[in-house]
Amino acid sequence: MRRVLANRDFRLLWLSQAGSTVADRLVVVALALYVNRIGTPTDVGIVLAAQTVPFVALLLIGGVWADRLPRHRVMVVSDVLRGVLHGLLAALILTGTAQVWQIVVIEALYGAAHAFFRPAYTGLVPQTVPEDQLQAAQAINYLSVNVASFAGPALAALLVVTIGAGSAFAIDAATFFVSAALLLRVRPRERAVRAPREPMLAELAGGWAQVRARPWVGLIILSSSLGLLVAYSPFQALGPAIADDRYGQAAVFGVVSGMFGVGAILGSALALRLRPRRPLLVGQIATLPWSLNYLAFAAGVPLLGLVPFAVAAGLGISLFIVWWETALVHAVPPDALSRVSSFDWMGSLGLAPIGLVLAGPIAARIGATQTLAAGAAIASAVSVALCFAPAVRGVTQPNSGTPLSGVDASA
Asked: For the chain, what are the domain ranges?
């Protein structure tokens, strides 16, 4: 970590995101707690959806702009806008005038701004470190994200109970302005000459062509999308009810989620060192405990047996994400990386809301545990099948066997 953080520009980028990521994770919980207090559970769902839908809808456009313009400048504008929006929300809450419809509008605009930030961030990371430190940089970033995901909800509950939701949003807004100030000092290196600008649709088509030219990219995105649809979304929607039915207390759902977070932190730390020759194949194998964890949960495996499953699931997912992001950076032309990243995010997340909506009605017909078990079984089958896909097996480290660079790294 010291070696990677010795790079000034990466250090500034990492510092800019460390604080705002923690604040962002706590805001999700603070938002749910506050809206539930002034509205109904349905209002909570509407508010969360208001942020998610614009984010997914605008990702492709965000990817195009991130490839057209200096990526750190795109991130600065996004940070400032999100800081202003959550500063406004903090003021509304602190003055006692916040209404649900106002929160919906603010969060919709927030999601739109985030859609431009995320692809830019993916493309900027490799511009701040030497090529041989790319995987370590990705691991450090995801280590921060996983720590934030683990600590953020607990911090949110503490802040809401002690100083109130308005102050929590004010803290979040401040982190965005600090992040923007740090990003203004970043001087990213150019990894390649930028291609001439083309019309929006032409550039979108160019990004899609980069995805199609690498079959392993499309296969991974498709498998992630299916996994979130049939396994992750039902777990989030039905998990508390299943925990209450199988274990006698809904709190077990929180324990499983927390242990997943512990595993994710461990996986990010291990990714600083582990460099398998075939990263996507090994990563795909490492993710198998993720769906098996849901199967064990649905089957009512005793808690002491369930905890190792949850830790292994978090560890495997974290390792895979780092290796996946590193593979994309090595394989995709630098001037198209943000567009490919936007297809990745949109493709992976696009079906998750559908899974959240359908989980309840399906569970009402066949049962909650049966719904989760069936989805986890499908996800497991997809993961196993992907391990035998030549396109996935053929991806190797740049300095090992077939290089990732080139049009089709699976050749």
From this structure: 2-188, 208-393
Task: End-to-end CA distance of the chain: give it in Å, rounded.
Answer: 33
Q: Which residues are within 8 A (CB) of 20 and not within 5 positions of it... i.e. 6 or more apart? A: 79, 172, 175, 176, 178, 179
d(C-alpha 123, C-alpha 190), whole Å: 11
CA distance 244 to 238: 10
**The pLDDT value given to residue 405:** 39
Contact call for residues 140 and 359 (beta carbons, < 8 A) = no
Q: 203, 339 in Cβ contact below 8 A? A: yes
CATH class of 2-188: mainly alpha
Fold identical between 2-188 and 208-393? yes
Q: What is the Cα–Cα distance from 93 to 115, expressed in whole angstroms?
A: 25
Least confidently predicted of 22-31, 84-93, 205-214, 257-266: 22-31
How far apart are the C-alpha atoms of 301 and 308, rounded to whole Å? 11
> Which fold would CATH assign to domain 208-393?
Growth Hormone; Chain: A; (1.20.1250)
Average pLDDT over residues 183-191: 88
Q: How confident is the model at residue 154 (pLDDT cuts 50, 70, 90)?
A: low
From residue 13, how far is each of 88, 290, 338 by CA, in Å? 26, 30, 17
